[in-house]
Amino acid sequence: MYLSKESKSRFLELLAFACLTLLGSGHNSVHAFAPSSSSQTEVAKLMSNRQTKIFSSSMLNGPEIGFDKSCVMTKEEIAPIVTLKEGEPKEKMVNAWGFYCIFVSLLVNPIWSLAMFITNAVCESFEDLDTNRAFYDKTGKIWAKAWLSLTDSYPTISGDIERLKEDNDLGACLFVANHASWLDIPVLCTILDPVFKFIAKGELKSVPCIGQQLVGGKHIMIDREDRRSQLRTFKEGVGWLKSGMSLMAFPEGKRSDDGRLDEFKGGIFSMAVKAGVPIVPISISNTHAVMPANALFPVQKGKGLLHLHVHEPISVEGKKEDELAALVKEALLLKMPLDQHPLPKPEDENNTNSVDVEVKRDLQKA
Q: Phi/psi at 251 (nearest 5 deg)?
């Protein structure tokens, strides 16, 4: 079935209203979940010693991230109620706060899944309707904002905020971020308003709701053990970038076990070089403390802890992949807490050329 441009626009508006109603009685009520700067300030005064700072999104030069204080809780502080595979490498635990997060998930996830089902069914029935799945992906962004708000974990942002606005005319880019927790995905979805596509590992297809979002939203799925899948991912990624669609990738290729930045996998930055688009690093702070690798759900509130800093774009012109990797790593570490920095290797202990984060932070203030 063919729809005129005007009819398509009106139809999408109707569909948007229906699905937004499902996901929170309209966009305004969901948006209202986001804490205002004044409420953030009040909450900061009531934070425990562990949550000493609240990061204001209006601070364009970035917040004073707690470089010298870890927000990670000990197992005693977490006080798990249920522990699966205790003592094993894949141990998973849930504490009282985790059970509350389970309740929130049972409340909003079925609504999100239904919204995706309805949106997908309608779009499949009409030719050229939401071809890049922009509206389909919007349901996931609304879910992320609702879920993080209801779990008192809405992140704050700083840096190049203009690039995050949906109506910006800055063109496509390759967003890249450190990957320390499952929470990284919903946290990123709260700040990235422009339409974009994730580069995600294929195993996520089987995760309830998340897999439905990735597959239905035409995101790029990769199997790093399959050479053909890697080549297909590269071509698909370059194609999206050249068409004006931004991508979001984790250069580490997997979640860090301890929150520290891991070595980068090859190939990600080559997409940006091939398509001739800039790379925009995003530093994510403290998701590993809110939802560590050995937890099934968050173990503490994220408000005041979760923060994202959007760095200035890095031009790919005249640069090789290893040069770009070094620049991205330097940018990410500049706004990440020290307990997320890689531990020094024995051969690097006497390396005077290592990144001095404190000095660079002082230079930024000057």
A: -60, -25
The answer to the question of residue 354 being in a domain is: no
Q: Give burial (CB, 10 Å; 0-12/13-18/19+) of 124.
A: exposed
Name the amino acid, one letter, at 66. Answer: G
- Report the alpha-carbon distance of residue 179 to residue 249 in Å, rounded: 9
In single-letter form, the type of residue at position 309 comes to: H
pLDDT higher than 70, residue 65: no
Whole-number Cα distances in Å, 320 to 174, 271, 324: 15, 12, 6
What does the pLDDT look like over 172-199, one tens digit per residue?
Answer: 999 999 999 999 999 999 988 888 999 9
Backbone phi, then psi, for 314, in 5-degree steps? -105, 120
22 phi-psi bin (left φ>0, alpha ψ -120 to 50, beta other): alpha
Q: Per the domain annotation, does 82 fall within a domain? A: yes
Does residue 145 form part of some domain?
yes
- The Cα 229–Cα 225 span in angstroms is 8
93: domain range?
A: 5-340
Q: Domain total for the chain? A: 1
Half-sphere exposure of 359 (CA within 13 A, CB side): 5
- Could you count the other beta carbons within 10 Å of the beta carbon of residue 343? 7
CATH number at residue 242: 3.40.1130
CA-wise closest residue to 143 among 188, 190, 198, 181: 190
Classify residue 356: in a domain, yes or no.
Answer: no
| Span 320-348, pLDDT tens digits | 999 999 999 999 999 999 899 998 876 65
